[in-house]
Amino acid sequence: MSSGGFHARQLTIVGLGLMGGSMALALKDYAEKVVGVDLDETTRQYALDQGIVSEATDDLKNGVKDADVVILCAPVRALISMLRNRIGSYLRSNTLLIDIGSTKDDICEAMGRLPIGIHAIGGHPMTGKESNGIDVSDADLYIDKPFVLCATRRTTPATRLRALALVEALGALPIEMESARHDRVVATISHLPYLLSVAMVATADSEAQVDEAVWHLAAGGFRDMSRLAGSDIRMMSDIISTNTQAIAVLLAQFRVQLALLEKMLIGRDEEQLTEALRPVREARLKWAQYYQRK
Amino acid sequence: MSSGGFHARQLTIVGLGLMGGSMALALKDYAEKVVGVDLDETTRQYALDQGIVSEATDDLKNGVKDADVVILCAPVRALISMLRNRIGSYLRSNTLLIDIGSTKDDICEAMGRLPIGIHAIGGHPMTGKESNGIDVSDADLYIDKPFVLCATRRTTPATRLRALALVEALGALPIEMESARHDRVVATISHLPYLLSVAMVATADSEAQVDEAVWHLAAGGFRDMSRLAGSDIRMMSDIISTNTQAIAVLLAQFRVQLALLEKMLIGRDEEQLTEALRPVREARLKWAQYYQRK
Questions:
Q1: Chain A partners of B281 at a C-beta cutoff of 8 Å?
Q2: How far apart are CA A69 and CA B95, in angstroms?
Q3: Distance from CA of A228 to the nearest CA of B (A)
Q4: A227-261 burial, b if ≥16 CB within 10 A, otherwise e?
Q5: Nearest-CA neighbor of B152 among B97, B212, B72?
Q6: Residue A112 belongs to a domain with what CATH number?
Q7: pLDDT tens-digit profile of B1-27?
Q8: What's the CA gap between B103 and A146, in Å, rounded?
Q9: Closest-CA distance of chain A to residue B234, Å
Q10: Residue B203 is part of which domain span?
């Protein structure tokens, strides 16, 4: 795997969870020094003991001030707060600053207000695991996974090339798009599905309170449809709270689709119903084939 | 495994698909003769060649007239039509008649109008496979799966005991409930999830028409949530068309749940949002543990 020239003198990773720890492991051969910033002492000690980072601190300023590459791996709103309130004054000029937040518009907007000279670009690696701690860090986490890059007002042509080289060093697949477009796409494929799963389980739970057979008879279809409702609440509410507008648009579209199906079903217009179901089924099968080949 | 005394002189299975073929295989040791009724000649020939049935016919009357046990394994509306229009006059008195339709209220109502003396009871084995032909028939398909039994006006205490013995012979787990209750439960755990999956994929498909990145970035969560939208259309539209009232009730409840989530999200009432998400997540995790242990 060619690094495309990625190299850091000091790589600082802010937030040592699964994503940050995996980033450190995947990039350590490309950096002379890897520094981790995390508020949790146990996490810092674990990262040092396991050789995930070479230095660790709980002080953001000390962690980032000498870095030439900084990757922000904190939750979305912690990222936004860091970008708005503090980090701009800590960073050296020419530092490459990238994040891994699951929504991009607010983050990229905050990056755009950083001091001129900081090379800031939004990032969203589309990968993860069921659990989230540094103890499940994995150097291969990003390999062959899409890594969305969103330009900001602080993204120069050089920023873009450095970010692409970083993504290539991770073994990920760079996809460049505008931040608002990214947020609309993830509202479609991730946040809408999450809310549907939650509302469906809430409906079943309320039914089950009058008839326990709901839980006894639920099977494979329900298992798949309810899985997202079991996601980490703090993480999901952090993510969806920073993408409310796109989600509201998608919810409005979804309601129309659902109402159309209901109309045909209740109106007993079966020919129309099967004609509506067919292209949806085909779209799903086509996507599933594409996704399997990936 | 004890048969609980199940025995048939002539067991007739109407409809030789996955469910009917598997029924024949699972019960052949309990019947002196197994007759299959199917309109498709290739299917009949296959069933004979593979020893799934000992006799096969395309004539419903000839197939059932000498049977003491008849299992209807056709699609729901074909079943209803058979029950309303023909089969009553073909059956001998004291024949045990059971079906495997995925909705029960209309079927049980039609069974209740059969001639007195026919022992009719509704059945819904909660099992299946991705594909549906007789070529994937499996003697073990019903083992340890719930098999719902719904009494009809033609269910005597003896009918019930014979049906329970049949379910036991299959190795399935009998669950007795009233047909309207069954339909409400399956609307909750199966039909609502199907419609949500379809409306979600329809929404994504419409988004993808302006931005292909939707398909490129969709991943595991979308895969799970979209799987049901790939179900067989004829089968699903047959099923949901016979359960419109319960589905409409569930859709109304679902809409309320979704609207509550949207209100909290858009209103930026995050404490309320996480308080709403928490019990739903707990309900899902609790059910998933129960389901895994099964």
A1: 229-231, 233
A2: 79
A3: 7
A4: bbbbbebeebbbbbbbbbebbeebbebbbebbeeb
A5: B97
A6: 3.40.50.720
A7: 444 589 999 999 999 999 999 999 999
A8: 43
A9: 7
A10: 182-293
